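#struct-help
A.M.: can someone run this one for me? Single chain, 223 residues.
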Amino acid sequence: MANITPQMVKDLRTKTGAGMGDCKKALTETDGDMTTAIEYLRKKGAASAAKRADKTATEGKIFIKTSDNLKTGVMVEVNCETDFVGMNDDFLKFVDIIGNTVLNGNYKSFEEMKKVEIEGSTVEGLYNDILAKFSEKIEVRRIHKIETDGSVVSYLHSNGKLGVLLELSNNTLEGDALGYAKDITMQIAAMNPSFIDRSGVKQETLDKEIEIYRTQAIESGKK
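D.P.: on it. Structure tokens below:
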């Protein structure tokens, strides 16, 4: 059996980001072979993810980006279990990779992009790496892409958890017009409107809202 030194454990941790205990175990199980140990940790990450499939991943980040010509916009939501992971640089880099892959390709789901080659690996390989490092449930929950002859503008809130993609019929946006469009995205984020204009409001919905406000008025003593 190979002699597992602290430096070997440190080197494996540097390469994978996994915990010291996991790195030592991986090296022990693979007789000190660094390449095999990395593969061991990646498999361990995938197995851990399977075990955590019933966990709830409610933290995470949103990726939003538009093309330079404002003809394409992408929004991707990647979830994890804890805010600690959600703020980690490696997790955020993974989110960026997924978002840019969607923006530059024609992928409607995470499954469709798993075999895409990136940074000497694949999207699936990078995903397994991130699972191995954090041992949390991490999932690409939603992907939305807009391609238009008009324009797409976006807004991402400072916490990275609230975003807006807005498609406009204007085929060019610049100067004040672009500023107004961005103001609209911020209003959408703040107000979360259900409809674009009156024509989209169903009578049933209108009746329910009227009844709600009528009840509120009665309970407050107003007539």
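A.M.: thanks! The radius of gyration is 24 Å.
D.P.: also worth noting: The longest helix spans residues 34-51.
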